[in-house]
Design goal:
Immunoglobulin-like, 5-stranded antiparallel beta sheet, 3 helices, binds 2-acetamido-2-deoxy-beta-D-glucopyranose, repeat, transmembrane helix
């Protein structure tokens, strides 16, 4: 049907028109919007306009608000000026046509939201809001920290910025150029313009900066902050490093510790400050300088202090070497002694062979029972010192076999003085006890025992008194004893010999005395023609005697004499008379010198009778020689005279017994005739003071 189609076409056209008009009706709605940006930044003192554009209805009623506060309300195109509230009138002007809001020389406190509302009766309200921000240039921005002195370990410290004037939009904090964010360590307090650093430590030392920004100008300020700490645990060192030092060494001690500011260190020794520096130089160090050294450290700013000790050990070697000795205690026990004087510390001494539990420092004695197994045993003392290990030896031994020796002199009072010495090598030194017959000898007018007991002096006017009794000496130490009997003899000569020189003008007469014979001097006697005068031309007198006459006197020590100016063509006889003061002993065998004697009648008779006797005599002589050789062999097994020695302190020494030369008298070489005069005359005066006369004869050489 065409009319229905027409109707549908018409009705759709109508709808289109209707809807067009309906759309046109929406154009009459009230509209208002910012003419520029809704956020407006401005510097204080400038002129600022909040410009709007509106449409939708003629002459609406307009209101401006600062926040919620009404600034002005008027109707567009009304004749009157908009009534601006009095508080704003000095700053704000409103253009009544365009509704623009203008601020002249805007102050800071005009920062706010500003809203414009438009109302037209029969239409809905329209509005739009501006945000106005008024800024100032930031001037003289500074940072400060609180507290002024920041110590590691305190609860917190605060950095705060301040400025003379200015408005900022944003603040940023930096530490050594890196932005700081809120964390467990940092607290950025925007409102308080501050940064709090919690539990600061030394790593928080550095440059802090704040950056304040606004749309017009940024400002920054920085401050260096030092977190003070220490002194930390110091390091004490010795250079060169040794476990101990010797007196005289040089070294230095150093003390170092971290801290801020760098701690001040000083060295204290024995309560005195000895160095105000970290390094202490010690040159030629002494043992008194050993001990505890304290390094004291102070942080000058925080007044925190700390100290640490170190021990310096200075040793000194004891003097010389250790010395060992042994002594007798109560004549029963042995006291071994070891000493090493001086030293720091004192040497530790011990006798490990005697006791492994006891020891001593510097000076150590150990008393033990004298037992046989100690006799001749070398005991070692170990001396331990940190600087040196040392030792010494001592050997205790009982007295050895010995021979007494005797000497005779005459004292100023004319008494014969017989000195007997009994000395036996022993360690400890042997003590000698003396007996006459079976009585103990005590000091008195007759007897005197030397302080070391080894010598007995007997004094009498008369030699016979010496022969009344026998004496005994006993050398004793804790390890044993040795005893000898001494039987004194009157003056006597055991042997004599004659040695002429080559041409028979000089003879040397020698003689020996038994070892225990009391002799104070000798008379040298001659029989025959007188001696030649010194010019040797003729005898002084032509006289000749058949009686012995004394031609020389010799002291008790003499054992030889020279007789000069003999006529080789004549015959002489000599003998020696031993004397003990006034008492003469038996003369020596008579010695003859001279050319073969013209045989007298009685002599011939004697010879004739003597021939058979001579054969017997030869036989006897052979037997005697054999006996002699036998005796010599035996003699070498007998105890020998030790050389007397002044051994007062028993020390580590090798026994050095040399056989007494006198005992070898039989092997003695003949006099040297080139040196005869000198040697023999010396011999007769300067024999060693205490060498006993050997009981042997002297070899004979013509
Ligand atoms: C603001 O406007 C006033 C009046 O028109 C004028 O005198 C002044 O110079 C202006 N200030 C600025 C900063 O433009
Ligand atoms: C109001 O503001 C607009 C947009 O900035 C401007 O074009 C217009 O001239 C202003 N009117 C007056 C009277 O200042
Ligand atoms: C802004 O501050 C000034 C003083 O600086 C004051 O006189 C004025 O009333 C204040 N204005 C507003 C809107 O607060
Ligand atoms: C910082 O330390 C002080 C005391 O030293 C304390 O009173 C304060 O609460 C601390 N501040 C913070 C943020 O921890
Ligand atoms: C400081 O920093 C160093 C290295 O970064 C670190 O080894 C040390 O433990 C820190 N000290 C403190 C007290 O945090
Ligand atoms: C201020 O600092 C901000 C952030 O660093 C920067 O984006 C801005 O350009 C700066 N403004 C001026 C005026 O320097
Ligand atoms: C300590 O000794 C060192 C060298 O060992 C020397 O350099 C230093 O100057 C000395 N110090 C003093 C205070 O003598
Ligand atoms: C360090 O030595 C001094 C003096 O000898 C002493 O008084 C102190 O207790 C010692 N200190 C330490 C930590 O050993
Ligand atoms: C001590 O005696 C031992 C043997 O007993 C020997 O080896 C050592 O050299 C002796 N020491 C001294 C100082 O005589
Ligand atoms: C020697 O001892 C015997 C008995 O032991 C005694 O009879 C005698 O009197 C003593 N002799 C002297 C001189 O004391
Ligand atoms: C001395 O001893 C000898 C030998 O033992 C002895 O013959 C003599 O009689 C004694 N003399 C005295 C005075 O006892
Ligand atoms: C005897 O010998 C000695 C040297 O031995 C010599 O000086 C002296 O003149 C000699 N006398 C005679 C008489 O030949």
């Amino acid at each position: 049907m065409p009319c229905v189609k027409e109707f549908k076409r018409l009705s759709s056209l109508f709808l289109a028109i209707l809807s067009f008009f309906t759309f046109q009706g929406a154009r009459c709605e009230l509209l208002v919007s910012p003419a520029g940006p809704s956020l407006v930044n401005a510097l204080a003192g400038e002129n600022v306009t909040l410009a709007v554009s509106f449409s939708g209805a003629p002459d609406p009623v307009v209101s401006w608000f600062k926040g919620v506060l009404n600034i002005a309300t008027w109707t567009i195109n009304s004749s009157a000026d908009p009534p601006v509230a009095a508080t704003f009138s000095s700053v704000i002007r409103i253009d009544k046509q365009s509704a623009n809001l203008t601020f002249f020389n805007v102050p800071l406190n005009y920062t706010s939201d500003y809203t414009i509302e438009m109302v037209k009766s029969g239409m809905s309200k329209a509005s739009t809001t501006f945000t106005l921000k008024i800024f100032e240039y930031i001037q003289s921005l500074t940072l400060s920290s609180q507290p002024g002195l920041i110590k590691e370990g305190t609860e917190n410290f605060t950095l705060q910025h301040s400025m003379l004037q200015g408005v900022f939009e944003q603040q940023m904090w930096f530490f050594n150029g890196i932005e700081i964010k809120n964390s467990s360590h940092y607290l950025v307090k925007t409102q308080a313009n501050s940064l709090v650093i919690l539990r600061p430590n030394r790593n928080d030392t550095g440059e802090y900066a704040v950056l304040l920004t606004n749309p017009f100008r940024n400002a920054t300020a920085s401050q260096n902050v030092s977190v003070q700490y220490g002194p930390n645990e110091p390091t004490l060192e010795a250079h060169p490093l040794q476990t101990f030092y010797l007196a005289g060494d040089s070294l230095n001690l150093s003390c170092q510790a971290n801290g801020f500011p760098q701690p001040i260190s000083e060295w204290v020794f024995g309560g005195n400050i000895i160095s105000l520096k970290g390094v202490l130089n010690l040159t030629n160090v002494q043992t008194s300088q050993g001990g505890v050294y304290t390094c004291r450290l102070v942080n000058e700013d925080t007044k925190e202090s700390r100290q640490k000790n170190m021990t310096l050990t200075v040793y000194e070697r004891p003097v010389g070497n250790p010395e060992c000795s042994v002594q007798s205690v109560n004549a029963i026990n042995l006291q071994y002694h070891c000493e090493w004087v001086g030293g720091t510390p004192q040497a530790q001494l011990s006798f490990p062979e005697l006791s492994n539990s006891s020891s001593g420092a510097g000076n150590f004695s150990l008393t033990v029972n004298a037992s046989d197994n100690l006799n001749g045993k070398t005991i070692q003392c170990m001396a331990e010192h940190p600087v040196e290990h040392n030792k010494c030896n001592i050997t205790a031994s009982g007295p050895v076999a010995f021979l007494p020796i005797m000497r005779t002199t005459v004292d100023s009072g004319g008494k014969i003085v017989v000195t007997v010495r009994c000395f036996s090598e022993a360690s400890p030194k042997a003590v000698v006890s003396w007996f006459s017959s079976n009585e103990t000898v005590t000091n008195g007018s007759t007897y005197q025992i030397s302080s070391n007991t080894s010598q007995l002096m007997i004094r009498h006017y008369n030699v016979s008194n010496f022969l009344l009794q026998n004496y005994t000496c006993t050398c004793r130490n804790p390890l044993g004893s040795k005893k000898r009997e001494i039987q004194l003899q009157g003056p006597s000569i055991s042997d004599s010999s004659l040695f002429p020189n080559r041409n028979g003008t000089i003879v040397t007469l020698t003689w020996e005395v038994p070892s225990m014979s009391v002799v104070t001097g000798f008379d040298i006697q001659m029989k025959g023609p007188d001696l030649l005068s010194k010019n040797r031309n003729a005898p002084l007198t032509k006289s000749s005697s058949n009686v012995y006459r004394t031609i020389q006197q010799k002291p008790g020590s003499a054992r030889s004499t020279d007789i000069f100016f003999l006529d080789p063509k004549l015959t002489y006889w000599f003998q020696v008379i031993p004397k003990a003061r006034m008492t003469n002993g038996e003369p020596s065998k008579s010695q003859r010198i001279g050319p073969g004697e013209g045989l007298s009648g009685p002599a011939i008779a004697g010879i004739a009778a003597g021939i058979p006797c001579s054969l017997l005599f030869l036989l006897l002589l052979t037997g005697l020689i054999y006996l002699g050789v036998y005796c010599i062999r035996n003699k070498s097994h007998q105890p020998r005279y030790p050389v007397p020695r002044a051994v007062d302190k028993v020390k580590n020494s090798q026994p050095n017994i040399t056989a007494n030369n006198m005992l070898k008298g039989m092997l003695r070489s003949p006099p040297d005739y080139n040196r005869l005069q000198k040697t023999l005359s010396e011999k007769s005066v300067s024999l060693p003071a205490f060498i006993p006369p050997p009981p042997t004869r002297v070899a004979t050489t013509v």
